[in-house]
Amino acid sequence: MTNSADLDRLRWAWSAEAVARLRARLRGVDEALEQSDLAHVMVLGDSQVGKTTLLLRLLGVTDPEAAAEAAVPLRAGRGRGRSATPVPIRYQWSGDPNLWSLAYDDSGDASGGQRETTWLTSGQLKKRLRSFRTGVTGDRLHWEPRARPLEIGLPDRFAGPERRTDLRVFDLPGLHGAGAEEREAAKALLAVYAPVVDHVVFVVSADQFAEMVRDPAIAENPFLLGWGEQAHRFSLVFTRAFSGDSVRRRLFAVLGEPGSPGWTRDRVVAAVQEHYADQWLVSELPSVAPSALFPVEIGDSWKELLDRDPGYAEAVAPVCDELLRRLSDTIARYSAPDRRHLAAAEIAARVEMVVRDNARRRGRALNVAARTERRAKHEHTEALALLDRAREAAKAASRKAEALRENLNRLAEWPVVYTRPNAPEMKGNLVREKQEEERAAWAAAARRAWAEWRETLEGTETPRQPPHDLSTKTREKYDELCGCCELCEQGWWKRFVRDSETPDHCYERMTGVGTRMPAWIRATLCAHAGSATARLAKADADAERQYAVASRYADQAAEALTCATAQLDELRERAAEEEAEDAANLAVARSVRAVHSQRNERYVHRLLSRAAQSEGDERSWSVLAALRGIHDLNRMFP
Question: Can you tell me the distance from the alpha carbon of 304 to that of 296, in angstroms, rounded to the nearest whole number?
């Protein structure tokens, strides 16, 4: 026996089966179909722009003092000016007049199973929320991005006299927290939640909205990138919207002073929305329908405006209330329990977003890899050219060093042609003169030997001139080898009587110089010519080192080129595979309607078959459930 409760519980079973079938056929983009059991709307914005305050107001916390009291435990001890929301949170009502409720999976399980609820005082909740922050300053978020969000229930005593709303909305940590780790954690959470929500509420200070939507966390997210093209998925809330002088001048210019006939709630709403729509265009952002903009004053900014200009604040208060009511209706529409099924038609659009993002990502990766390969090719070409230059330089240095060695060997055997002056009359001062002639002759022979040897060389590194003191040293060497006693001026008879030495003996000593002087001259010339040896040896060694360095550089450049080419080839191969996979996923995603229609048809046929075999109320319930199934399919795909 089937009753209406059973049929209502199974109302969307056919839709769940269709989504499961689609997910089973998709590869790599199934996250685009994930839906949270908690919420389908996300509130997003910078830190300290009033996101949590806005949500409390939308829930029905209308009294400023009650909102301030509720904010104390929710801030978890964070000072003013610092981001408060530590983790993804869905706010609701606890059902208890004084206690907060907290639902949280300590295991971090994201499977969506049954959660236990804990009842806490304000102090206990504050301590619990503080535990999700770590670090000395509390600027690190201790939270796994894939963990299910917290569910926090407010005590009923915070509720205002108006109706309380059960919103299904995520409040995420602000994008621009104080610490770098907090900012990165917030971006990671955004990447997780953006694909699974149906509606996004941007909350931003009125003077900073352009900067926020250009943030990379938003501009590079495929599910947020198209906010200008999919206006139905986004609402934009501007806080501190009435405080600025520009909006005040605009309202007064269009509607007159508060209290004038033109100053009505609906006309002020339209005027302020049009003002911010115009400001949006001035910021060179995509045009937005004024109805998607919700300029409001809440929290501290409302108190400041009320203290500064109470007349103006009271005049715009009904406008803020009306805009908040419209925003609440928008969020409630996307928060409805049936929303996850009615949004099935957007599966293809979400998969297309992922596919487009994949294509952009692949394109960027391929461009980077191609640039890397081009750079590696250029560096490899330069390395080979450098290696060639280093090789030639090393060969040239080696040739110069070898040429010098050969020339020095020739110089070491080069003939020293000495033309001796005629024999002197060995007496008195004539001996001294004759020795001077021989000294000059040996010096001339040394210079002549150098000149003759040097003329045989071309482009060598040896000095062009002989040693500058060659004559002086040759004369000194002559005196050393000759060993003259310089006593001949005293008269040969006296020397003969005393030493038994004759003039012939002295002449023999002068003649004996010729046996040793040529070798000394060649050695002296070789020492002078070999002064380039050390320099050429160093140049040769330096060239060899440069060649070794160039060789290593060429090897590294070749290895880098090989790696870059291999990486580019791998990326191209992977890109081709991913493109084929994306094409298959698109084909599957675009069959959403056919798959849902098929499952719905089976569901309706089962109900009609059951109705044909039933009687009384069960038949009526089955027929009504079948009609409702057809109606639900039409609502999905209008």
Answer: 13
- Under 8 Å between Cβ of 404 and 462: yes
Specify whether the CB–CB gap between 273 and 337 falls below 8 A: no
Token pair recorded at residue 437: 């002639």
Taking every pair of Cα atoms in the chain, the longest distance, rounded to a whole number of angstroms, is 174
Residue among 464, 582, 475 at smallest CA distance from 531: 464
Q: How far apart are CA 475 and CA 439, in angstroms?
A: 5
**312: CB partners within 8 A, 6+ apart:** 242, 248, 258, 305
Note the helical H segments in 101-231: 122-130, 180-193, 209-213, 216-219, 222-225
Assign 487 to helix, strand or coil.
coil
Distance between CA 545 and CA 205 in Å, rounded? 64
Residues of the chain falling short of pLDDT 70: 1-3, 28-39, 47, 77-85, 106-114, 134-143, 145-146, 163-164, 176-179, 209-210, 213, 226-231, 284, 424-429, 459, 485-505
At 351 the three-state DSSP class reads: helix
Range 578-585, long-range pairs (CB < 8 A, 24+ positions): 578/28, 578/358, 578/362, 579/359, 579/362, 581/27, 581/28, 582/355, 582/358, 582/359, 584/27, 585/26, 585/27, 585/28, 585/29, 585/351, 585/354, 585/355
Backbone angles phi, psi at 480, to 5 degrees: -65, -45
Running DSSP on this structure, what letter comes out for residue 421? P
Q: What's this model's pTM, rounded to 2 decimal places?
A: 0.63
pLDDT of residue 497: 47
Rounded Cα–Cα distance for residues 321 and 295 (Å):
11
